[in-house]
């Protein structure tokens, strides 16, 4: 790329392309070409019966929740990384420069294999992270569906795409836990997915479910389910810190069912020991995520969105905010 035309980044992102910066920032974490190759410390893979229960709940309600899949100590350490980034004015999605954030979902493999097939994949740009502060002005993202494409969910209710959301601190109604409208109660599924979300479409407020989640556990939902993060409060004991990764079946290419400029140039990969994500690819993945969620970026980072846009365009090319936000 011609450096004369590259967007110029101001602090704190000026050093983002310097791998030594990230290594010095958290020297106990790792940056390696194969982030899933290492044996995970503190990992607790989900058992077969729990995985089957999660799969059945997904088919009926469009979402599931799991017990913890990592130790409390590991969750707390990774939450500390996100908190440190937020304190430095760095968007939490940059936590994905470290192996440990790609490894978080490894305990989910039995559930994902049950729903998507043993050879399930991910597209590297479909990642995000949040740090919702204990404040009455902070909130998660409002009611939305991740995708409107009917083919994202099979006729038998099994998804072709699953959004896995993992809290690193306890997510409660006081600090912006997730809420869902179960699929069985949503009259807009499957034929009216683009109907604008409003309480008039919920039929009954009682159908809404709060989904508190312990640090280190996981939630998952299909891309049709209406979901949102609640508003935080000053009564929260800690911020709501979480990350999310989209996974999909091998027969599903995300841009075929939900085109977005942000995914161009990214190849889907099997999520296993050979999953490749060298440092340069991580920067591109983070840049793609910023492009993918650019509308949310502008709202969530009112003082830093221009730098985040510039970073994204530097690594994936000019897109001028044209991608569809979520």
UniProtKB/TrEMBL annotation:
GO MF term list: dioxygenase activity
InterPro entries attached to this UniProt entry: Phytyl_CoA_dOase-like (IPR008775)
Keyword Oxidoreductase: yes
A Pfam match: PhyH
Highest taxon of the lineage: Bacteria
Keywords: Dioxygenase, Oxidoreductase
This protein's name: Phytanoyl-CoA dioxygenase family protein
